[in-house]
Specification:
The structure holds 2 protein chains of 2 kinds. By secondary structure, chain A is α+β, with helices and mostly antiparallel strands. Chain A is 24% helix and 32% strand. In chain A, strand 4 and strand 5 form a beta hairpin. Chain B contains 11 helices and 13 strands.
Chain lengths: 366, 432
């Protein structure tokens, strides 16, 4: 068991104008499932590979426990890339399929048997140990592949987009299995994905990366409620948070015909802010106050409905930089949704607004 | 989305294949061999005109990436299977989307390692395969390819004058970088070592490889072979300025290993008493390029070496050392090589590739001469070989019936029956 520490860890490819990973500082706790998430090119895979020893570290250090592994060869780091190799050998028993890597590593026979038995118990494979892989179902075979990593009892598991190959349905199933297995084993794990839903459902903590920088590292719930900056606010959550450019007025920020109360202290003298509100944090107001929205599309999902519309007098922020205009989105009661073309008024629920500095994008207030 | 075929050399016959059917259900008459085993992806070998192609069902994004990667490796002149195309936008009869398909051309006369072990083999076959794989890995690494999943099953082997040459089959996990870090190369080696040992242990469990062979030791040879070759190809050496012959000697050593030196860095120390040399760019195929230039024959490296030796003997025997090499080579090809390989009756041409046949005949001539205690002519050796040895050999021009058994990432199996009840028999895709 071990902690993992990235200390100012930097990876700069020769010839690139800037580092791919710039002074990454992160502590992964013993037994924790840490998920690195971000859009492509954010450096999440690079940082996993720095820990695995596959990418040189040009600055800073990486520790596993209190051991500095920065310059160690991959095989001396005691980490295991899980799901990297799925080969199952048809003539070998399930037990041998799980234990053969230990044999290669020169582990004694009875020790191999002990570890294979333990892993089989955890993976519900004990009754199948003497069978051949052909006699197993697909899911059981996948667990054999996991068992191969488990018997090595490494200090850290590394998983780099392990589900990218699966169809959507299996992905959901398998991610639940991985997360619950990881918790049972209690092995410190670094998991990399581009999918924020995967990150939020699996991670004990989630680290969001962008352009080689750590944007935020927190528990999923906290991050959802307290995004540190505009990027995290827009990236985490599906459907995404509405982000608007709003003027500061007396008592708060002006959302259409409504003033969202924000303390002067939090606003710190700004005249404009980036304001964020999640689609589910709005209520339809009956008194005609609030943000005026003309409904363009109604998406009915049973219990809920989403309304997409054009908000009067506010500018949506183009967070993904594609230049397209974004509709404003709100979740409403699915039993009584407004109709297309209707004009509605929306009010933010108290204490669910997010306010960010319009220039730096950093969160203002709590 | 309509069916879309992206192909390097589009073949209209591609359109006739049943793309709206899951690959696992394709009718037998289309298949070149019956698939066996379990695989990471569903793979089928399909006849297309007079050739065979491998069709792998795969996620569209990953398939397109692998296709581009194989094309890139091909452009770099690295030994790999030839990517034919990607088929995307497949839907079944009910309009449900199906995975994309990656198409690769079957490499003629190539052999999967399992097929090699199911024949009666020389005891050192495993070692020869390892040697070939080490050369392949060094070549890939020199060009910045990080494989990520090195194994015997992801490699195909061609006979090469008694040895083997290796081709990369699966580039799914690969990445191309300007250069590789030590960690990346070490990782590939470690993956290779574990995979190969596993594959050999599996052969032993199946009774295809003698129990006495030490799987761990054999797979360890890959690392040793790789390191010594890598060191020879990239290492720097320094020596006194008076030992300049060592520059030539290094180049000759690399040539003997089958590599040409494209760029050699030479530096001296401040007072000029010591020289340091380090190869910067080396190209595999020293002998095969030379043979190609002289005769137009495109063969494997060791075969080329063998043919060039025979060409040299021909030159000596005919007393034409003073003549231009090109003229002598043209004569040799016309008078020796062509008649020999043409003497194989058409029905036996699927047994061996022409250059490998020529090599075998040379071996056979030597063997006959020794047995008879006198020189045997090439013509006699050919006649005897064709009559006695060749008919007993297996056809090798399109061996595809492999069962590289791999883990299905895409477990297309009954759900949610995963944990309960007896396992149902699995359908059997072939190698990935």
């Amino acid at each position: 068991m071990a902690t993992v520490t990235f200390k100012d860890a930097t990876r700069h490819y020769p010839g690139n104008p800037k580092p791919t990973i710039d002074k990454l500082n992160i502590d992964i706790n013993d037994g924790e499932l840490m998920v690195f998430v971000g859009p492509s090119g954010c450096g999440k895979s690079t940082s996993l590979r720095m820990l695995a020893g596959l990418e040189e570290v040009n600055g800073g250090q990486i520790f596993i426990g209190d051991r500095d592994v920065t310059n160690l060869s991959p095989k001396d780091r005691d980490v295991a890339m899980v799901f990297q190799n799925y080969a199952l050998y048809p003539h070998m028993s399930v037990a041998d399929n799980m234990g053969f890597a230990l044999k290669i590593a020169g582990v004694a026979k009875d020790e191999i048997k002990k570890r294979v038995d333990e892993a089989a118990k955890i993976l519900d494979l004990a009754p199948y140990l003497e069978r051949k892989p052909k006699a197993l179902s697909g899911g059981q075979r996948q667990r054999v592949a996991m068992g191969r990593a488990i018997v090595r009892s490494p200090q850290v598991f590394l998983m780099d987009e392990p589900l990218s190959n699966l169809d959507a349905k299996l992905r959901v199933q398998t991610r639940t299995q991985i997360a619950s297995l990881q918790r049972r084993l209690g092995v410190t794990t670094l998991y990399v994905t581009h999918d924020q839903t995967e990150a939020m459902t699996m991670g004990d903590r989630v680290a969001v990366l962008k352009d080689g920088y750590l944007m935020q590292c927190d528990a999923p719930r906290y991050m959802y409620d307290h995004p540190n900056n505009v990027f995290v606010a827009g990236f985490i959550g599906s459907p995404a948070m509405n982000l608007l450019d709003l003027p500061v007025v007396d008592g708060g920020v002006k959302l259409g015909g409504y003033v969202v109360p924000v303390s002067r202290e939090d606003l710190g003298g700004a005249t404009h802010v980036t304001y964020g509100i999640r689609p589910e944090d709005m209520d339809l107001s009956t008194d005609g106050t609030g943000l005026e929205l003309v409904v363009d599309v109604v998406e009915e999902l049973g219990a809920d409905a989403y309304i997409y519309g054009t908000a009067a007098g506010v500018n949506q922020i183009d967070t993904d930089g594609d230049g397209g205009s974004k509709p404003f989105l709100a979740r409403v009661d699915g039993r009584r949704p407004p109709k297309r073309g209707e004009t509605v008024h929306l009010k933010p629920k108290p204490n669910h607004s997010h306010v960010f500095n319009a220039d730096s994008g950093q969160r203002l207030g709590k | 989305m309509p069916l879309q075929i992206t192909a390097a050399k589009p073949n209209p016959e591609l359109l006739d294949l049943p793309w709206s059917m899951p690959l696992a259900q394709w009718p037998e008459e289309l298949l070149a061999a019956l698939p066996r085993g379990i695989s990471r992806h569903i793979v089928r070998f399909v006849r297309l005109g007079d050739r065979v192609m491998a069709v792998k069902e795969i996620n569209a994004e990953i398939g397109a990436r692998e296709y581009a990667m194989l094309r890139m490796l091909e452009r770099l002149g690295l030994p790999c299977v030839e990517a034919l195309g990607v088929v995307t936008g497949r839907v079944d009869a009910d309009g449900e989307p199906l995975d994309a398909c990656l198409l690769t051309r079957h490499l003629k006369f190539s052999l999967p390692y399992r097929a090699l072990f199911s024949q009666a083999l020389r005891p050192d076959t495993a070692g020869r395969l390892i040697d070939a794989l080490a050369v392949l890995l060094v070549r890939l690494h020199l060009d910045g390819f990080f494989w990520g999943d090195v194994s015997l099953s992801n490699t195909l082997f061609r006979r090469d004058a008694g040895a083997y040459s290796a081709y990369l089959v699966d580039a799914e996990t690969g990445e191309l970088r300007p250069t590789l870090s030590v960690g990346q190369r070490e990782h590939d080696l470690e993956v290779a070592r574990v995979n190969i040992a596993g594959e050999l242990m599996d052969l032993q469990a199946g009774g295809f490889l003698d129990e006495s062979a030490d799987a761990v030791e054999i797979s360890g040879q890959l690392c040793a072979r790789y390191r010594s070759l890598w060191g020879e190809l990239t290492g720097s050496e320094s020596f006194g300025a008076e030992d300049r012959w060592r520059v030539d000697e290094r180049i000759r050593r690399l040539n003997d290993l089958g590599f040409d030196v494209d760029e050699l860095a030479i530096s001296t120390d401040i007072d000029g008493t010591h020289l340091q040399i380090q190869p910067k760019v080396v190209d595999a195929g020293h002998h095969s390029r030379r043979l190609l230039r002289l005769t137009g024959l495109d063969v494997e490296e060791n075969q080329a070496r063998r043919l060039l030796n025979d060409l040299d003997s021909f030159r000596m025997a005919t007393g034409r050392q003073g003549e231009s090499e090109e003229f002598v080579a043209a004569d040799w090809a016309e008078r020796i090589y062509e008649p020999t390989v043409r003497s194989v009756p058409p029905e036996l041409r699927g047994k061996l590739e022409p250059a490998e046949f020529f090599h075998e005949v040379l071996e056979h001539r030597w063997y006959l001469s020794e047995r008879r205690g006198k020189d045997v002519s090439t013509a006699d050796a050919v006649a005897d070989y064709v009559a006695v040895v060749l008919p007993a050999k297996p056809d090798e021009d399109s061996v595809v019936g492999v069962d590289t058994v791999q883990m299905p990432v895409v477990a297309r199996l009954p759900r949610p029956a995963d944990r309960s009840g007896p396992a149902r028999p699995t359908q059997g895709p072939a190698p990935s």
